[in-house]
């Protein structure tokens, strides 16, 4: 069973940067597609970015494209989300998720880390 733990969230001012980490345990996720999602107060959870098992293929939501970068270090069983030029509308709880190659749904989720961006 895969356990995912996010860290790196916090309170920052608009324009600042943060790097979120997602550490996996219980099983290696080197063959998993990993993703980041977020949920703002009163809103549904939304996709932020995902990365293929090798790291060679990434995709980001239009709202964060050019500002957020997803990466992974399979040797450390860790996925990252570098967030630059943060905006108040990026305020949300950020979740890490994983799925096996070929799967559509993400069965593995972390508990989330809060990111708050003040104007």
Describe it.
By secondary structure, this protein is mainly β. 0% of the residues lie in helices and 53% in strands. It has no helices and 11 strands. The protein has strands at 3-7, 10-13, 18-25, 32-39, 46-51, 58-60, 68-73, 78-83, 92-100, 108-109, 113-118. Strands 2, 4, 5, 6, 9, 10 and 11 form a 7-stranded mixed beta sheet that branches. It has a 4-stranded antiparallel beta sheet with strand order 1-3-8-7, with no helix packed on it. Strand 7 (68-73) and strand 8 form a beta hairpin. It is globular and about 40 Å long. The termini are far apart. The model has no long low-confidence stretch (mean pLDDT 96).
Q: In angstroms, what is the radius of gyration?
A: 13 Å
Portion of residues in helices?
Answer: under 10%
Order of helices and strands: EEEEEEEEEEE
Number of strands: 11
Global geometry? globular
Give the arrangement of secondary structure elements.
Elements (H helix, E strand, L loop, with lengths): L2 E5 L2 E4 L4 E8 L6 E8 L6 E6 L6 E3 L7 E6 L4 E6 L8 E9 L7 E2 L3 E6 L1
Short note summarizing the structure:
The protein is mainly β and 119 residues long. It has strands at residues 3-7, 10-13, 18-25, 32-39, 46-51, 58-60, 68-73, 78-83, 92-100, 108-109, 113-118. The strands form 2 sheets. Strands 2, 4, 5, 6, 9, 10 and 11 form a 7-stranded mixed beta sheet that branches.
Name the descriptors.
7-stranded mixed beta sheet, 119 residues, 0% helix, mainly beta
């Amino acid at each position: 069973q895969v356990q995912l733990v996010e860290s790196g969230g916090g309170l920052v001012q608009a324009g600042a940067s943060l790097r979120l980490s997602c550490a996996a345990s219980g099983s290696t996720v080197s063959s998993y597609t990993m993703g980041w999602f977020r949920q703002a107060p009163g809103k549904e959870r939304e996709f932020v970015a995902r990365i293929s098992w090798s790291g060679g293929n990434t995709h980001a939501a239009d709202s964060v494209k050019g500002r957020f970068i997803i990466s992974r270090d399979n040797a450390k069983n860790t996925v990252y989300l570098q967030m630059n030029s943060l905006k108040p509308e990026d305020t949300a709880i950020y979740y890490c998720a994983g799925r096996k190659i070929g799967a559509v749904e993400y069965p593995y989720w972390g508990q989330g880390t809060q990111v708050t961006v003040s104007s």
